[in-house]
Amino acid sequence: MPIVVRLDVALAQRKMTSRELAAQIGISEQNLSMLRSGKARGVRFNTLEAICKALHCQPGDLLEYVHDG
Amino acid sequence: MSSVETRPFLRSARMLGWILFAALCVLGASAAGLIAMLILDTEGTGRFLIIAAGYEQVIPRPWQSGALTGIVLSQIAVWALVVTCARMIFTALTEADVHRAGRAATLTARWLWLWLMLVWGILAFALATAVASWHFPPGERSIAINVGTPQISTAFAALLATFISRAFVLGAELWQDHQEVI
Q1: Residues spanned by the domain of A51
Q2: What residue spans define the domains of chain B?
Q3: What is the pTM of this model?
Q4: Do B177 and A41 touch (CB under 8 A)?
Q5: Which of A26, A44, A50 has the CB atom closest to B181's CB atom?
Q6: Does residue B49 contact residue B65 with C-beta atoms inside 8 Å?
Q7: ipTM
């Protein structure tokens, strides 16, 4: 998929573990792992909002469009 | 962060599963009761079934009693199969396996309800009338096909079940989609 999730980078920059983030935004670690690995089909606006609030970032810091060809 | 509350639905599915299990027990008990009746009073059982098929009270031969009991047992078996498959739908739903529930719903609606219950129901009645009138003199024996309110109701129920099974399959796809959106 040309949309790449940069959650790992954002977490590393803030020295936060995925477990801490999952607990803070109220989703399961399994779901957060799916999002990080790009296996999720989509992301809800309220999930994105909660992640941005927790990491003090913009949606653009988490998602990136990469050209296929 | 799911916005769908599934607990009341799963509770209903579990309850329906139990109701269908109870229905299965009733069917099993009916079958056992019929077999016991046949062993204890072969003639009486045959007479009762011949009257139920719409013929006058006669003394049936043992093979007639056995054959009629077999036909009734086959109908009970068809019902048990339908109830078992319907129970599979709710068991799968209780375990949140919507794909398995969709497959079981399709199987129940298309094959069991429509073909076994409707077609075998009509054929079984034709067989029962042939067996019940076997002792009549030549020319008076009959094979009757009964298409009445129960058969029409079964056909409507089968159509509704088919539609519901499609809704289940669609629901399974939507559930999958819901699960993959975080």
Answers
A1: 3-65
A2: 7-174
A3: 0.69
A4: yes
A5: A44
A6: yes
A7: 0.74
